[in-house]
Design brief:
3 domains
Amino acid sequence: MADILEYKCPCCGGAINFDTSAQKMKCPYCDSEFDVQAFIKQDERLNEQAPDEFKWDENAGQEWESGEEEKMSVFICKSCAGEIVGDENTAATECPYCGNPVVLSGRLSGTLKPDYVIPFKHDKNAAKEQLKQYVSSKKFAPKLFKSENKLEEIKGLYVPFWLFDSDTNAAVNYEATTVRTWSDSNYNYTETSFFDVYREGEMQFQNIPCDGSSKMPDDLMESIEPFNFSEAVDFQTAYLAGYLADKYDVTMEDSIDRANNRVKHSAEDVLRGTITYPYATVNTRNSSVNIKNGKAKYALYPVWILNTDYKGEKYTFAMNGQTGKFVGNLPIDTKKIAALFAGLTVGLGAIVYIAGTLLGFF
């Protein structure tokens, strides 16, 4: 049984067919017409386009040298089950995720040694100051939030990251539009034109980061990017002195899908940036991304973490320990929001009243 080809209208998404009278593809729903040749070229391109292909060398990290593991201890949080690595002089500490005490469990074993580490460049005092500035800059944060925070709960933590490098070839079809408006004495008109835009190119990606901790929210870690890998150094246990290090629980293999998505979206964005015509919109219709020479590294990145409670709710902040970039979620003072809307309502009411008075309605 032969397959029935179905084409979609770029304007409304409805099924379109060949109109014999117009000798064009015509949409029965919005009456848009399209040249047949445009769809033929699109079909040819799609048939030639290869499916996504992602190939990675899955060897990352390195084995510990003799005696190195004995210099580090593993701490277990009984509240959130987090595993944290400290140096041999760390006796007890607080969990950087939930703030509860953690206890010494034993010596480090069974995990890979990081290839690289980016040392901390900002200390705890800098993290405290950044928190104060961050909170004070938010107009709708409660006044008491700053004073009621337990600033001493800030912890310096090395977060495990898998870093992905690849040579990438990408081909993308975009749907672009232009919009033209005009008026006459009777009507306002809007004309939307649709374009099939194609881009293809080769590019290289280096050090695409995917954090290897399931306890660390991915969106939080992505928010404090980028890290400057040019300042990374070969890993030495001495860099852990005075800090904690998260023990990865998301393997490199389990991070590949996320790396693939980041490469794919980044490649689409790079090629989209080459479209210079003043389109109103440019959206990805379909794409093909092929990765070759893909490889990964294992690194520790410096992060300051603050967990604090405010009126029974937990709030988490993070600061990039290299660049100082600070992010986090804040409580909202509902009274300030209500006052703002009340002011907007009064102001809008005054404008309406003035306009009505000028027009003779009041």
